[in-house]
Structure formats: C-alpha cells, structure tokens
Amino acid sequence: MSSTTDLTKRAIAAHLRQPGALQPSCGLSGPATAAGREFVVLRNTGGVLAVYRVLPVSRTLKRLKRWPATLNDQAGAAK
Fold first, then answer.
1. Phi and psi dihedrals of 17, rounded to 5?
2. pLDDT tens across 48-76, in order?
3. Is-above-0.85 flag for pTM?
C-alpha cells in the first residue's frame, strides 16, 4: 500500500470518528501541497470537509481548524 493511500485512509478514519461527520468521497479526497507543506484534504460533492496536515518526521496527521485558501481551489485535483 502506498503511503499516499495510507494517509488518505487514516484521515478518513479520523474524520469519521467525529460526531456528526459527513462521509467524504474517496474520489475527491487525497493529498495536496501548499506552501511547501503536505496535507490530506477530505472532500465530498458539497466541498471541503476537513484538512489534515501531514507532519514531516512522524507522518502523523493533525486536523486543522483553518487551512490555506489554495486548498479550497484544488477541488478534485488532489488525486
């Protein structure tokens, strides 16, 4: 399993543990890069549901309350 697929699956699992979380689309969600940092963006047809930053050394995910606006513009491009 590639690390990209693993990171996306981990982000979806973390997102779905939140109460009332909407189901993200696997086809629209995936990795993205902004300002030299790695992110996993979870989307559905309504837009961005959540963004997780990939920490560089440990490869752990950190859910962001605010994220770079450029990630909103990359709809579906994060495959």
1. -75, -15
2. 999 999 999 999 999 999 999 999 876 55
3. yes
Angstrom distance (rounded) from CA 10 to CA 74: 21
Residue 40 contacts residue 29 (beta carbons within 8 Å): yes
Cβ–Cβ < 8 Å for 39, 33 = yes
CB contact set of 36 (below 8 Å; sequence gap of 6+): none
- Both structure tokens of 21: 């979380």
Question: Do residues 49 and 43 lie in contact, with contact meaning Cβ atoms separated by under 8 Å?
Answer: yes
Distance CA 50, CA 14 (A): 10
